[in-house]
């Protein structure tokens, strides 16, 4: 007889850890849950890779914040998984998942032990229960080769998607102190890595094709503020152009970056942050795909109801806007993971997922949070020459999105609550003059909330620390496939699917 599990989580990202924690809270028994991860360490808090791991004062990089998740609630170390009877299959890549054959999983774990265990389950006539996957490691960093740029496996060209990437980047940074770094990309990874490089006393040039940084979220006015701040730290920007080729020395290291506009930028280190691609290949042709991800319902359930998808890979209905969205952020990964476990373990008590899209970042001494949707007309407010300012987005006369830099906990809570309520806005000029006061005023008119505000973070934390009363609600890629079913021999009642 092979190994047998009721639940299998594919991928070892953030959502895998939060799902595991939620499973234990819901009473999963030892031996029922397995996590298969290509990485060699247990699931960990990925935001800390760019927000803490790269900083020079980060002392013991392992295991201080990266070999576990749940830093603010319970540290999910490898020991924790063992104590709870959760099987960690690390350093293992999943080769295939056959949904029609009751989620038979084939991996490079030994002599296909997991495949054998699934077959033994089916031979014994046990019904498949549910299928579960996890998270941010089911997204892949886009590589330069995909855009026709050959890096020849240069040792000083780095990405930042996982712990191995971060460790390589740290080693290269330490070898080129005072040197020149070129950051390709002006999004999350580009901005956060550039800040860490500057703090490590490395000269930074950022290169991206758009007119300003963070183009998917920031307005030009918001971006100008951050770009000016970065320039004050010595960062140079080369915008509106792309990388075309590298120059190498005799050892194969990159020495310069050549751009399409003819610019040549010397480089001792290159950091590439040009986006991700959800890794849906295991399920293409088996599950419905939409917006680049696995399409799920409000229970995070895929077109085959034994498969659940969460995190970056999940395209789920956002009730607030009445449409399917695929969101690439850790907050979404955490929350969708928890919701899917609730839907699996307590389906009759679990409503459809009701999520307020939320994004945040911290660089240098700055900290911003965004809620909702950046669609419609834009209204900026606050002092853009100071430390606190923001913006609203108004669509069809309703407030649908909000952004704030430099707020405190109460201000972020007010912003989140007002955005979720989608209040009507009659006069944009009045909204601009009221600024943050508009959200505060909206909230003061309402009775005390019966449920916590989703997505509010304490901007002073390295890995954000929400209060305990909102932690359970607090988020790549993730999907999951359960490799077994309702087993009466487990001696406990389970709902059949």
Automatic annotation (TrEMBL):
<keyword id="KW-1133">Transmembrane helix</keyword>
<keyword id="KW-0472">Membrane</keyword>
<dbReference type="InterPro" id="IPR048618">
    <property type="entry name" value="MDHAR3-like_C"/>
</dbReference>
<keyword id="KW-0520">NAD</keyword>
<keyword id="KW-0285">Flavoprotein</keyword>
<dbReference type="GO" id="GO:0005737">
    <property type="term" value="C:cytoplasm"/>
</dbReference>
<feature type="transmembrane region" description="Helical">
    <location>
        <begin position="470"/>
        <end position="491"/>
    </location>
</feature>
<keyword id="KW-0560">Oxidoreductase</keyword>
<keyword id="KW-0676">Redox-active center</keyword>
<protein>
    <recommendedName>
        <fullName>monodehydroascorbate reductase (NADH)</fullName>
        <ecNumber>1.6.5.4</ecNumber>
    </recommendedName>
</protein>
<dbReference type="Pfam" id="PF07992">
    <property type="entry name" value="Pyr_redox_2"/>
</dbReference>
<feature type="domain" description="Monodehydroascorbate reductase 3-like C-terminal">
    <location>
        <begin position="356"/>
        <end position="438"/>
    </location>
</feature>
<dbReference type="InterPro" id="IPR016156">
    <property type="entry name" value="FAD/NAD-linked_Rdtase_dimer_sf"/>
</dbReference>
<keyword id="KW-0812">Transmembrane</keyword>
<keyword id="KW-0274">FAD</keyword>
<dbReference type="InterPro" id="IPR023753">
    <property type="entry name" value="FAD/NAD-binding_dom"/>
</dbReference>
<dbReference type="Pfam" id="PF21791">
    <property type="entry name" value="MDHAR3-like_C"/>
</dbReference>
<dbReference type="InterPro" id="IPR050446">
    <property type="entry name" value="FAD-oxidoreductase/Apoptosis"/>
</dbReference>
<dbReference type="InterPro" id="IPR036188">
    <property type="entry name" value="FAD/NAD-bd_sf"/>
</dbReference>
<comment type="similarity">
    <text>Belongs to the FAD-dependent oxidoreductase family.</text>
</comment>
<dbReference type="GO" id="GO:0016656">
    <property type="term" value="F:monodehydroascorbate reductase (NADH) activity"/>
</dbReference>
<feature type="domain" description="FAD/NAD(P)-binding">
    <location>
        <begin position="7"/>
        <end position="336"/>
    </location>
</feature>
């Amino acid at each position: 007889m092979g190994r047998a599990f009721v639940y299998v989580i594919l991928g070892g990202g953030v959502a895998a850890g939060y799902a595991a924690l939620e499973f234990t809270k819901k009473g999963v028994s030892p031996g029922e849950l397995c996590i298969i991860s290509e990485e060699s360490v247990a699931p960990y808090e990925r935001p800390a890779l760019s927000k803490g791991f790269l900083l020079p004062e980060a002392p013991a990089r392992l295991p201080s914040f990266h070999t576990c998740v749940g830093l603010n609630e319970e540290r999910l170390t490898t020991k924790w998984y063992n104590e709870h009877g959760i099987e960690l299959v690390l350093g293992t890549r999943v080769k295939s998942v056959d949904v029609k054959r009751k989620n038979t999983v084939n991996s490079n774990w030994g002599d296909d032990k997991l495949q054998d265990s699934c077959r033994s389950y089916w031979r014994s006539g046990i019904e498949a229960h549910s299928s579960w996957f996890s998270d941010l490691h089911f997204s892949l960093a886009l590589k330069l080769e995909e855009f026709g740029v050959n890096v020849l496996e240069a040792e000083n060209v780095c990405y930042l998607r996982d712990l191995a990437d971060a460790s390589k980047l740290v080693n290269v940074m330490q070898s080129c102190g005072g040197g020149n770094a070129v950051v390709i990309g002006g999004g999350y990874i580009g901005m956060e890595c550039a800040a860490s490089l500057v703090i490590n006393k490395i000269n930074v040039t950022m290169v991206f094709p758009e007119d300003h940084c963070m183009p998917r979220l920031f307005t030009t006015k918001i971006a100008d503020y951050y770009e000016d701040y970065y320039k004050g730290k010595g960062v140079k920007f080369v915008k509106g152009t792309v990388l075309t080729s590298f120059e190498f020395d005799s050892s194969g290291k990159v020495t310069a970056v050549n751009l399409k506009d003819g610019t040549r930028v010397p480089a001792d280190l290159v950091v590439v942050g040009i986006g991700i691609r959800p890794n849906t290949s295991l399920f293409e042709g088996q599950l419905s795909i939409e917006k680049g991800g696995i399409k799920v319902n409000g229970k995070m359930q895929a077109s085959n109801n034994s498969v659940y998808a969460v995190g970056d890979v999940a395209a789920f209905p956002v009730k607030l806007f009445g449409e399917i969205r695929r969101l690439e952020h850790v907050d979404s990964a955490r929350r969708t993971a928890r919701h899917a476990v609730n839907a699996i373990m307590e389906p009759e008590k679990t409503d459809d997922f009701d999520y307020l899209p939320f994004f945040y970042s911290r660089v240098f001494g700055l900290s911003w949070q965004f809620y909702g949707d950046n669609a419609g007309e834009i209204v900026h407010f606050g002092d853009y020459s100071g430390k606190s300012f923001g913006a609203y987005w108004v669509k069809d006369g309703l407030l649908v999105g909000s952004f704030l830099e430099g707020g405190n906990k109460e201000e972020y809570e007010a912003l989140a609550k007002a955005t979720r309520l989608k209040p009507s806005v009659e006069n944009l000029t009045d909204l601009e003059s009221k600024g943050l006061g508009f959200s505060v005023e909206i909230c003061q008119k309402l009775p005390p909330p019966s449920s916590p505000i989703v997505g509010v973070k304490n901007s002073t934390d390295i890995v954000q620390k929400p209060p305990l009363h909102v932690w359970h609600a607090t988020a790549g890629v993730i999907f999951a496939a359960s490799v077994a079913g309702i087993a009466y021999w487990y001696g406990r009642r389970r709902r059949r699917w």
